[in-house]
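Lab notebook, design round three. We kept the backbone fixed and only want residue identities now. Task for the bench partner: fill in a sequence for the structure below.
Input structure tokens:
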């Protein structure tokens, strides 16, 4: 609580005194703290891969480059870490656009089926790498499923959900994507039989940079920003996203998107 005392003098003596103004600044302070934590997180998350890249390059420059096998290994690491930094910076740019409440979602009439197939194509290499059996089940295969939405942003969301289902599955695991149409909305479920999420972590996985196992996520190229962005994008479409999971058994992400946009502020978090 912020208090401000302002002396008050009226012409007639009996009205002399002070005005006390009380301001509740909890919200402002929360915002300042959130910003500070965010900047600290970004710096930390970028410093880790940068330190790795720097030390690998130093070792190469010190002579390790002469050994072909060693240099191949080192360059692989440098490439992987650089890719992770590029993804993180791209994701941070999307978040910053959403934070600035810019109208970043471009609404067009789009066929959700096409978005699903595009996302499935994107994840083909990692699916193959991990020998995952991906089953796509579209309940109304012959109908167009049109909604008002941003096809690029939704591709980013679906790709992220599929990537997570694959990344946090065992080699040779099963992933199911289900797309169905209800009266006024489209529903999507992405289900895996992977490692699952402990119940204590579940409420926090949509937070920026939150990861159940930092080391595992990092090794898979994860940034901890994917679900935070997914939720903001889906909410900006007037929809919502939830996750249910059982540790050791698997995870199911459920989301819905309204077919027609109600008049609501687009781009808000
Ligand atoms: P990341 O880039 O680390 O994958 P996300 O924001 O996409 O970040 O996810 C946050 C965390 O939630 C992940 O680090 C992981 O611990 C957990 N998670 C997300 N999806 C799944 C899943 N399908 N199975 C198990 N854990 C998951």
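Proposed sequence:
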């Amino acid at each position: 609580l912020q208090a401000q005392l302002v002396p008050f003098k009226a012409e007639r003596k009996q009205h002399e005194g002070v005005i006390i103004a009380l301001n509740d600044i909890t919200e402002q302070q929360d915002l300042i703290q959130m910003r500070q934590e965010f900047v600290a997180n970004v710096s930390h998350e970028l410093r880790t891969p940068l330190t790795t890249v720097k030390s690998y390059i130093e070792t190469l420059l010190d002579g390790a480059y002469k050994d072909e096998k060693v240099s191949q290994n080192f360059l692989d690491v440098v490439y992987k870490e650089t890719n992770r930094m590029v993804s993180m910076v791209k994701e941070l740019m999307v978040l910053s656009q959403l934070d600035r409440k810019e109208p970043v979602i471009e609404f067009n009439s789009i066929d959700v089926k096409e978005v699903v197939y595009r996302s499935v194509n994107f994840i083909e290499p990692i699916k193959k790498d991990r020998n995952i059996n991906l089953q796509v089940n579209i309940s109304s295969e012959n109908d167009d499923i049109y909604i008002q939405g941003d096809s690029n942003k939704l591709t980013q969301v679906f790709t992220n959900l599929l990537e997570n289902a694959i990344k946090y599955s065992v080699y040779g695991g099963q992933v199911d994507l289900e797309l169905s149409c209800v009266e006024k909305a489209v529903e999507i479920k992405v289900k895996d039989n992977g490692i699952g999420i402990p119940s204590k972590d579940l409420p926090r996985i949509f937070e920026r940079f939150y990861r159940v196992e930092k080391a595992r996520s990092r090794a898979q190229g994860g940034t901890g920003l994917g679900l935070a962005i997914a939720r903001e994008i889906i909410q900006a479409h007037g929809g919502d996203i939830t996750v249910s999971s059982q540790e050791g058994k698997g995870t199911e992400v459920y989301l819905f998107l309204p077919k027609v946009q109600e008049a609501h502020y687009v781009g808000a978090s």
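Keep this in mind before ordering anything: The two ends are 26 Å apart (CA to CA).
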